[in-house]
Amino acid sequence: MNINLTLIGQMLAFVAFVVFCMKYVWPPIMGAMQERERKIADGLAAAEKAEHDLELAKEKSVERLKEAKQEAASIVESANKRASQIVDEAKQTAVVEADRVKASAQAEIEQEVNRAREKLRGQVGALSLAGAEKILGASIDQQAHSELVDKLVAEL
Amino acid sequence: MAGENQTVSEYIVHHLTNLTYGKLPGGYERYDGSVVADGGAWVMAHGGDEAAAMGFSAIHVDSMIWSIGLGVVFCLLFRSVARKASSGVPSGVVNAVEMIVGFVDNTVKDSFHARNSMIAPLALTIFVWVFFMNLMDLVPVDLIPHTLMLLGVEYQKIVPSTDPNITMGMALGVFILMLYYSITIKGVGFLKELTLTPFNHPVFIPINLFMEVVGLLAKPFSLGLRLFGNMYAGEMIFILIAALFSAGIMWLLPAALMQIGWAIFHVLIITLQAFIFMVLTIVYLSMAHEDH
């Protein structure tokens, strides 16, 4: 337990090891640790941001979905409206067409009736003339009596 | 045990003697009766008396080898980790080393507030190196000394921190740093601190100077002697327990239990002492940086 040169030797060794540690050990280890710390912090921040973004995206998608539903509903509604409109229109045209067809048919019938009546009238005239001729047995002056017949025909 | 015919006190003394290489003064009568020639001679000391006669011009070969060897182990281990260090995922020994580095860095940040890039590496070196030196205390006391004795090496103390030269050498290194930073950073302020505190009056300068210088000198002494005292006492108890093994067969079990108990307790002490040495170094250097 004597104090001797060991003291000096230890002091020199101490200095040497401290210098070595300061130059070659501490900076790389500390640098790596700080770098990792920074990376982790960045990673955590990125994760947080991503989570936030996800939240936003979710909100947005919900909104979009709602919008789309509304749009779809309105489209269906307007389609329904349009459909009933078309049906109404078709009904109306049908009614109009039917009326038109009916009218033309009526007109035709009337025409036909008139024509038939004219024809009938003519034939009745001739027939009554022939009948009268037969009844009288004599030849009647067709000219003298035609006035009478015409009057008769007009009465029919 | 070293030597079959030793008494217990011889055994203990043998264990507490360093392997010393030094210069014996001229005219000294050696253990074998030979007389050292005039002008002295550099020899390996044989026993404590010769080592004492060498005075300051001697060196504890065992302390130096173990101390520097452990320092080299520290440097190689941490350097290999520093090479591998990356910001990727750490594993294995890198993890352990980074944990120690982080721990030291936190301790330094907690108690050292000035800016000095030397303090943290200094603290790391002190902590790990002192811990390694203390760790040698847990090696069974006879294992290495007795093995070396069979190889012809007479004395061997394998725990460098039980040598006051080692602990005081480090403490003096810290002391020189303290003085250096006190003078370069405080300048005249350091002189004022020595002469005008705690009594701020010119009349009290001698008293102040005396008190402050004693206080200043007490720092390295307390630093070095605390570590030395703790480790020396611990080593001493290990030696006594080892001596107890030879006291008879019925002492075998109690001695074994004591050995285990003390070793477990000592794990705490060696770590704590390394930590205290580091923290006090940081605190002292922090005081050297702070201008009042």
UniProtKB/TrEMBL annotation, chain A:
Q: Which InterPro entries match?
A: ATP_synth_B-like_membr_sf, ATP_synth_b/b'su_bac/chlpt, ATP_synth_F0_bsu_bac, ATP_synthase_B_chain
Name the GO cellular-component terms: endomembrane system; plasma membrane; proton-transporting ATP synthase complex
Membrane topology qualifier: Single-pass membrane protein
**Regions annotated as coiled coil:** 51-82
Q: Where in the cell is it found?
A: Cell membrane; Endomembrane system
Q: Which domain of life is it from?
A: Bacteria
Which residue windows are transmembrane per the record?
6-26
MF GO annotations: proton-transporting ATP synthase activity, rotational mechanism; proton-transporting ATPase activity, rotational mechanism
Which keywords, in A-to-Z order, does the entry hold?
ATP synthesis, Cell inner membrane, Cell membrane, CF(0), Coiled coil, Hydrogen ion transport, Ion transport, Membrane, Transmembrane, Transmembrane helix, Transport
Record family assignment: Belongs to the ATPase B chain family.
Which HAMAP family does the record cross-reference, listed alphabetically?
A: ATP_synth_b_bprime (MF_01398)
- Describe the subunit structure: F-type ATPases have 2 components, F(1) - the catalytic core - and F(0) - the membrane proton channel. F(1) has five subunits: alpha(3), beta(3), gamma(1), delta(1), epsilon(1). F(0) has three main subunits: a(1), b(2) and c(10-14). The alpha and beta chains form an alternating ring which encloses part of the gamma chain. F(1) is attached to F(0) by a central stalk formed by the gamma and epsilon chains, while a peripheral stalk is formed by the delta and b chains. F-type ATPases have 2 components, F(1) - the catalytic core - and F(0) - the membrane proton channel. F(1) has five subunits: alpha(3), beta(3), gamma(1), delta(1), epsilon(1). F(0) has four main subunits: a(1), b(2) and c(10-14). The alpha and beta chains form an alternating ring which encloses part of the gamma chain. F(1) is attached to F(0) by a central stalk formed by the gamma and epsilon chains, while a peripheral stalk is formed by the delta and b chains.
Matching entries from NCBIfam families are given as: ATP_synt_b (TIGR01144), PRK05759.1-2 (NF004411), PRK05759.1-4 (NF004413)
- Briefly, what is this protein's role? F(1)F(0) ATP synthase produces ATP from ADP in the presence of a proton or sodium gradient. F-type ATPases consist of two structural domains, F(1) containing the extramembraneous catalytic core and F(0) containing the membrane proton channel, linked together by a central stalk and a peripheral stalk. During catalysis, ATP synthesis in the catalytic domain of F(1) is coupled via a rotary mechanism of the central stalk subunits to proton translocation. Component of the F(0) channel, it forms part of the peripheral stalk, linking F(1) to F(0). The b'-subunit is a diverged and duplicated form of b found in plants and photosynthetic bacteria.
User: Which PANTHER family does the UniProt record give?
Assistant: ATP SYNTHASE SUBUNIT B (PTHR33445:SF1), ATP SYNTHASE SUBUNIT B', CHLOROPLASTIC (PTHR33445)
Name the record gives this protein: ATP synthase subunit b
What's the source species for this entry?
A: Chromatocurvus halotolerans
TrEMBL record, chain B:
The entry's localization annotation reads:
Cell membrane; Membrane
Q: Can you list the GO cellular component terms from the UniProt entry?
A: plasma membrane; proton-transporting ATP synthase complex
Q: What does this protein do?
A: Key component of the proton channel; it plays a direct role in the translocation of protons across the membrane.
Membrane topology annotation: Multi-pass membrane protein
InterPro entries hit by this protein? ATP_syn_F0_a_bact/chloroplast, ATP_synth_F0_asu, ATP_synth_F0_asu_AS, F0_ATP_A_sf
Instruction: Cite a single GO BP annotation.
Output: proton motive force-driven plasma membrane ATP synthesis
- For this protein, the parts annotated as crossing the membrane are 64-82, 118-144, 165-183, 203-225, 237-257, 263-285
The taxonomy runs:
Bacteria, Pseudomonadati, Pseudomonadota, Gammaproteobacteria, Cellvibrionales
Sorted UniProt keywords: ATP synthesis, Cell membrane, CF(0), Hydrogen ion transport, Ion transport, Membrane, Transmembrane, Transmembrane helix, Transport
Indicate yes or no for the key word Transmembrane: yes
What protein name applies here? Answer: ATP synthase subunit a
Record the organism: Chromatocurvus halotolerans
MF GO annotations:
proton-transporting ATP synthase activity, rotational mechanism
Superkingdom of source: Bacteria
